[in-house]
Amino acid sequence: MKTLSRIKTVLLLVSICSLGSGCSQKANQAEKNEQLVRTYFGEVWNKGRVGYLDKLLSNNYINHTPSVPNPRKGPEGLKPIVLAIRKGFPDLHYEIMDVIATNDRVVARVVMTGTNTDSLFGSPPTGKKIRVNQINIEKIENGRISEHWRVTEELELNRQLGLLK
Predict the structure, then answer these.
(1) What is the largest CA-CA distance in the chain?
(2) How confident is the model at residue 67 (pLDDT cuts 50, 70, 90)?
(3) SS (H, E, C) 69-134
(4) Distance separating alpha carbons of residues 4 and 159, to the nearest angstrom
(5) Helix and strand numbers, DSSP H then E, in the chain
(6) What is the distance between the alpha carbons of residues 41 and 130, in angstroms, rounded to a whole number?
(7) pLDDT tens-digit profile of 10-59?
(8) Which strands form 144-152's sheet, in the order they lie side by side?
(9) Are the C-beta atoms of residues 126 and 116 closer than 8 Å to each other?
(10) Contact at 8 Å (CB) between 62 and 148?
(11) C-beta separation of 144 from 58 below 8 A
């Protein structure tokens, strides 16, 4: 009876340890995914280093909410968008306010700030400063961002640019 009880205890401990290891691996992957997204905002959007996109995005990256119609897949589709937005807002900055990371997704609530001193997708500069919220969802596969969804306070953005009263 004592032996059976010990065997049960050992099996229970082995089960708990293997569960803990799986949880630890998932937490570790979530941390890596969060760092990937922090690098994406820090290097690409805040500093304009579009070359980083080749390392951060998958070749089949899909932007589900692009600023232009039908961009190419992969890093080459996002590079001109980043460059255009940074041209319109040379002091563009994203501050990450909240992050929720899992083993295959990262949700980032960010505040986008900048001054519109140059043309933006054909619109003339307004000289106005902006501060708007965004929610970004990034799907991560094999250590790279493979899909992107974004919701921006578009109405507030247009108000701050003086395009709406």
Answers:
(1) 84
(2) confident
(3) CCCCCCHHHHHHHHHHHHHHCCCCEEEEEEEEECCCEEEEEEEEEEECCCCECCECCCCCEEEEEE
(4) 72
(5) 4, 5
(6) 17
(7) 444 444 444 554 556 767 999 999 999 999 999 999 999 999 999 999 99
(8) 57-63, 144-152, 129-141, 105-115, 93-101
(9) yes
(10) yes
(11) yes
Q: Which two tokens stand for residue 150?
A: 């974004």
Amino acid (1-letter code) at residue 164: L
Task: Give, in order, the Cα–Cα distances in Å from 34 to each of 11, 37, 97.
Answer: 35, 5, 13
CB 52, CB 145: distance < 8 Å: no
Please, what are the domains in the chain?
A: 32-160 (3.10.450.50)
Q: What is the pairing mode between strands 57-63 and 105-115? A: unpaired
